[in-house]
Amino acid sequence: AGRGTAVIRASLRGTLAPDLVAGMDHHVAFVVGDGTCGLHVRHGVAVPPDGAGAASTVRMDRGTLVAVLSGRTLWGAAVAAGAIEVRGDAAALDRVRAAFEVEGLRG
Questions:
Q1: Distance from C-alpha of 96 to C-alpha of 3, rounded to nearest angstrom
Q2: What is the 3-state secondary structure of the chain?
Q3: In the structure, what pLDDT confidence band is assigned to residue 10 with cuts at 50, 70 and 90?
Q4: Is the dihedral of CA 66, 8, 69, 86 positive or negative?
């Protein structure tokens, strides 16, 4: 995994609100630069697999990732600007994003 994927794992650790993803089972692959990691939300917890077989894929560069996780850029603005590309179940991904206590992801 690349540096971007390490940033994802470090930033999201311990910030999930389990009640917001109750009953959910969704696997997301994050492709950041040349690295890929996964985030699988199920049973109210998020685990970091390698992203293989994910139902949704998110692509961005490392600068966008850092801007979103730091709150300097909101997810919605980055998607609208074309800096984040989402494929798959966008509604499930939106629900996952909303469950993390990271302002840039929620916005």
A1: 22
A2: CCHHHHHHHHHHCCCECHHHHCCCEEEEEEEECCEEEEEEEECCEEECCCCCCCCEEEEECHHHHHHHHHCCCCHHHHHHCCCCEEECCHHHHHHHHHCECCHHHHC
A3: low
A4: positive
Q: In the chain, what percentage of residues exceed pLDDT 90?
A: 48
**Per-residue confidence (pLDDT) for residue 12, from 0 to 100:** 60
Q: What is the pLDDT of residues 47-75, one digit of tens each?
A: 888 889 999 999 999 999 989 988 899 99
| Closest listed residue to residue 38, CA positions, set 70, 87, 64, 1 | 1
